[in-house]
User: Fold this.
Amino acid sequence: MRFQLSEDQRALQTGVRGLLAARFGREQLRAALGVGEAPELDRGLWRELGTAGFFSLRLPEEAGGVGLGLPEAVLAFEEAGRVLLPGPLIATQLAAGVVPGAATGETVVTVVDGGGVVEWLGAADVVRGDAEGAAVLRSVDPLTPLHRVADPDSGDRTDVLLTSLLTAAEQLGTAARVCELAAQHARTREQFGRPIGAFQAVQQLCAGILVRVELARAAVYAAAVTVDPVDIAAARLLADEAAVRGARDCLQVHGGMGFTWESDVHLYLKRAWVRARRPGSVTEGEEVLAAALLAEAR
Amino acid sequence: MDLSDTPQEAEFRARLREWLGKVLPSLPAKPSPDDWPGRRAYDLGWQRTLYDAGYGEVHWGADPAVRMIFLEETEKAGAPYVGANFVGLLHAGPTVAAEGTDEQRARWLPPVLRGEEVWCQGFSEPDAGSDLAALRTRARRDGDHYVVSGSKIWTSHAEVADWCELLVRTDPDAPKHRGITWLAMPMDAPGVTVRPLRTLAGSNEFAEVFLDEVRVPVANRVGEENDGWRVTMVTLSFERGTAFVGEVVACRRVLGELALAARENGRWDDPVLRRRLGRLNAEFRALWRLTQWNVSEASEGVPGVGGSVFKLRYSHARQELYEAAAEVLGEGGAALDLEQPWVLDRLSSLSYTIAAGTSQIQHSIVAERVLGLPKGR
Assistant:
């Protein structure tokens, strides 16, 4: 057993982080927000991601892909979650090798998920599932447009497990990032003549965020290795919790500043909320995990 | 990232499993929790059995992964826990091994490994719990002896211990972390009084130890005078990595038993309870993965902070587990039916967020040492 990142995996992590920092830093994030309109997908960025191998990561080399596995995909999606990279990233990666152009980032693919919701419908070239009668659903996340479709069962359910795992990876990245933001703020913001991070109540909030991140990380990475449905359910549950509660606590640490539109914290929280409603969410996961208890104890 | 055993690990696991299968059926019956001499004999006997089979030093092995497999397999097989040997094997022993002289190693280590002597821990004091460095038990030098006076508390196995790893203040004027010294004190020395302390679980789990002018030879000092804090920290870091492996395995087993019991008595049909157990399943699976992560990290020689992170989450999860158990039992845990397996565990789990540094202190440790927040107050 050596449950640590390999050298190659660390290099991949550094590489993706560098690419995203250069191409989707804070300025691009704020620019993507626009004012009061539906966000647009940056097709140039999408193609760059394609060229870098983001979508073809798990496609075999014979098929023109990078030939890596699920653990590597999880690391890449974690980085995407750190910077709130917008777009139907998971649907497009899962379509690589199936939908022409998806692997290279030429074709943007989205999917009708099991909840009858579709992300980024307007921007997509290909929709997997039946989006007949789709109606705009006002999204809490200003960077994720949503539609509700008429028939919730019309979606493509084949990749539900992988979607849930990669969602967990995105949530993990978001959770890790809000942990850094909270700590950064607590170290520098002064009140009552000292940094607020010296107050135990604030320390408790920040440490709590980190503990949830580390637990989720262990669960998500393990699920990427085993691809066991029960492991994935656990990973998703803990990663959703780490991201949503982490972002809320981060907002609390930021105080009044955190409640403003100018602060990025609300963007992390809102994205975490939107991801948390994807199939494989809390209730579903808890039932899977409960059923597994009986199955395993027998 | 690899979760499977290496060939060496697989070989160790298989050999251990086979041995446990042979030796466990002929083990004597467990003594009752209040039978302290019986518990001492039982725990020492198990250590002797391990020693004779070549597993006596497994906790001190260089490879944490091997130790983890040992704890995992012994727990799964229902083997005895480390029990009264805890301090000797996991704390005092490693400290002597790392910081002691050759004479000290020769005197104290073999009896621990062979299951002949029990150690207890004289760290905590009534006014120095999580703030361990605030301890006040004094030791003044008198020729080739230290003369020790003060009191210790929460001392497990004090009633049956032969030795006490004792932290004393040898320089009251030094900054509080600097004037501390680590001594091995014989528990039968004149001036040592042990008074059992009854816990909320009704048991005499630990004791107060009163020290009145106890003479301890200077030769029993491990490390330099006034350097005891550093000596102690060496051991604490050793202890944290894998200390809870067996317990996590046990919690996962209990969770499975709870599910079966709930199905048996119909409580499983309650979706709120069922989902609560499902969430706990996520929790303990993840805690197991976190353990594997921490152990792998330790195998690479990286001093991780995983210990505090793990302890924080685990201690609360364990309490949640036994709260759920009370729920499964039906009377909401109002009945103190000691025949039921989980009733005592529920009570004793309350200590987990207090012992070895309260959760509040652990939060500060994580905030300051991992996240780099300024020192709190």
